[in-house]
Each structure stands twice: as structure tokens, then as C-alpha cells.
Amino acid sequence: MKLTNSISVSNEDQFFLIAGPCVIESEKQVLQTARELKEITNRHNIELIFKSSFDKANRSSISSYRGPGMERGLEILQRVKDKYDLPVITDFHAPEQAEAVADVVDVLQVPAFLSRQTDMLTAAGETGLPINVKKGQFLSADGMDNVVNKIESTGNEQVMLCERGAMFGYNNLVVDMRNLDIMKELGKPVVFDTTHSVQRPGARGDSSGGDRQFAPTLARAALGAGVAGIFAEVHPDPPSAKCDAATQLPLDEFESLVKKWKAIDDTVKDSERHD
């Protein structure tokens, strides 16, 4: 599947990264993170799509920081494209936003909580862009077939499916690695979201908690199973982050993780090519 003129992805080829801060906190923060992520991925010859959100519409509390809004957020993402020649991805939250967001981004993302909303999926498909759909915490992997069909009803077959954990009782998630193989059987590239998978939704009452220390392990497991890409939220100073402070990965530690992930991916896919 072709994401941009220069980036093609599949479950069989070298993995690519979707990475960046959870939410846009400032232009300076976004540009700093994008520059360092590009330097890291260039050193290891890994394709990068930069991610950050202009709005976090599903925050636990009415007083939680949501982002700069669509207009300013898209301006900042355009700056990333212009300054660092990076493709970008962001999520949208209402069908009427899809067209305006698609004017800037290279890949459009459907949030997990909205992954069954028909109007969201068809609006995404009608943009003609590649779509990354987060599998809802409440959906089975084989249920994503209906999600794919809704998008493809628009004539757009450029769909990636993203695993991000499933609800495990209240305020916790668990990852069923079988889902990766099940979604691959739908004939689409599969992405593993390693940082949202270790969330504890709403666990702190007015915000979500999480277990950042397990995110690298889950990424290694997903790459061992063979996926097209890894999604990871990365922040220069996670404890100070305005969203997902408990799960974002530290920017200054990210290169060491990427090196390990690439070694696993190379080993698994080289082996599969020689079987």
C-alpha cells in the first residue's frame, strides 16, 4: 500500500514508524520533536510519519487540555512538512472536519472511540487519502471487516488497521496478539500502537494513567509477530506532558528502542523471505 509518493508499506516489508507527541502543546515542541525523530529514523533508514493531534476530543475531564484547535494545529503540522519534508498524520473527530484536515495531512486517522461511526468512516474514505483506523477498545479484530467495508464503499481501498488494546474490566487494557494475525487476514497493513496499549483509561479520575515501562516490550512482541508499522507517542519530557503523561516515551531514549525494534523486524522478515 502506498502512503506517499516515497513510502509504501506492507506487513511483509520493513516496518515504518508513526511517532510524535500525543497533542500539539506548542509549535516549538512539535518542531523540536519532529527534527529529532527525523534524525533518528534517518540514521536507521526507517520511514517516519510524524503524528500529533490538534484536538483531544475524548479527554476524561472538561478541564483537561485539548490542543490548539484545528486551524492552528494544521498550521503547525504544515510547518513540520515544509521545514523537515516529513509526511504527517493526525486524527479528526467529526465528519465535517475530514476535508479540511485532508488538505494538510498525508494520512488521515480515525480515533478508536469513533471507529464504528459510519459517517466518520465514509467521510475519511471520501478524502481519497490513506486511512489509519484505530481498532476500538470495544471491537473484536474480525469485526474490523465491517470498518474496512464502510471505508471501501467510497471507492477508497487505502486502509490500515491499528491495534491499540482492548478493555480489560474497568480502567485497564490488555493486548491480544492474535488480533494482529486476524487483521492481517483482512488483507490490510496492520499497525501496532504500543503507547495507547498501555493506558489505564480514566484511572486517575480526571485523567488516564498508564504503564509506560511495558510499551517497549509490547512493541517487540508485535514486531515478532510481523506488522507493517509501530505507532508510538514520543515526548521531550513525558512527566510534563499535557496528555498521556504516563504512557508517552521519552524522546532521549527513543533511539535505543528503535535500534532494538529494527533488529527484531529485520530478523523476522528476513526469515520469512527465506522460508
TrEMBL record:
Gene Ontology molecular-function annotations: 3-deoxy-8-phosphooctulonate synthase activity
Principal cellular location given in the protein's record: cytoplasm
GO CC, one annotated term: cytoplasm
Location(s), subcellular: Cytoplasm
Signal sequence annotation: none
Reactions the enzyme catalyzes: D-arabinose 5-phosphate + phosphoenolpyruvate + H2O = 3-deoxy-alpha-D-manno-2-octulosonate-8-phosphate + phosphate
Claim: Transferase is one of the keywords in the record: yes
Domain DAHP synthetase I/KDSA intervals: 6-268
Entry-linked InterPro entries: Aldolase_TIM (IPR013785), DAHP1/KDSA (IPR006218), KDO8P_synthase (IPR006269)
EC main group: transferase
Enzyme Commission (EC) number: 2.5.1.55
NCBIfam families: KDO8P_synth (TIGR01362), PRK05198.1 (NF003543)
Family matches, as HAMAP family: KDO8P_synth
Cross-referenced PANTHER family: PHOSPHO-2-DEHYDRO-3-DEOXYHEPTONATE ALDOLASE
Protein name: 3-deoxy-8-phosphooctulonate synthase
